[in-house]
Amino acid sequence: MSIWNELSGIDYRHAYVETGDFRTRALQAGPEDGEHVVFLHGTTGHLEAFVRNIPAHAERYRCHSIDMLGHGYTGKPDRPAEIPLYVEHLMAYLDAVGAERAHLVGESLGGWVGSWAASEHPDRVASLQLLCMGGTKINPAIMERLKTSTSDAALKDDIAFTRERLRLLWAHWDEDLGEELTQIRYDIYHHPDFQRNLHNLLALQEPEARERNLLRPDRMGRIKAPTLVVWGNKNPLGDVPEAEAIAAAIPGARLEVFNECGHWPQHEKADLYNPLSLEFLAASSAT
């Protein structure tokens, strides 16, 4: 079994899109005249985080799972990656693919970026899904854990460190798919360009940078897009009360909590997430 078998029944394109000074790696699928749905991964993640979700969504929507700026095989600017820079890159991608508006699905860091984009560019965001989103708190212990585990995974040769970094995201490890994802991430992490840029990708794990990028209630209160918050009750990077506070801060937001689920609800509980997302998107498209 391979994660890429998930895509065997659909027509998809592995593409590189010119977005300003940097080209962006993307997985694109679905009808070209469909509403755009853009999937955004977490810190030091990559587009494969959404392989289990693309086929179901591509039946109706034009799907884009991208490596965000500095991540995966997308271009890497030599400066700290803070939220406005990610949003600028996202807008450049939307422009490059001719998407005036898009539904944004953001996991962890991706939700942080999506929320900021929705507050700054309400005309470009049709709806918003926040999957175990980060960015509303400063928790030094979690930040240090992310920084240390990611640095070990990227800078040490032993693939066990990459495996442990991925295990952090799951409540229950899937041996077969987990091992394949481990190899994919190991290859990305050990590319020289990624290693040189790692300190920039971890900038938001520093208290001063995180403070100036925090998603505060006043910013979340400006979000006008229909919003779905999805959480795992075993998310090691944030407890359920954090999700409840996010949903309370965003006008009209809906919260769904998956049991026995960690930090990757779209992957670990794809059978629950996909129909929930499609129902939400259909309702959002009708408004």
UniProtKB/TrEMBL annotation:
Cellular component aspect of the GO annotation: membrane
Coiled-coil annotated spans: none
Domain AB hydrolase-1: 36-269
Pfam families linked: Abhydrolase_1 (PF00561)
Top-level lineage group: Bacteria
Keyword entries, A-Z: Hydrolase
Record-linked InterPro entries: AB_hydrolase_1 (IPR000073), AB_hydrolase_fold (IPR029058), AB_hydrolase_sf (IPR050266)
A single MF term (Gene Ontology): hydrolase activity
Designated name of the protein: Alpha/beta hydrolase fold containing protein
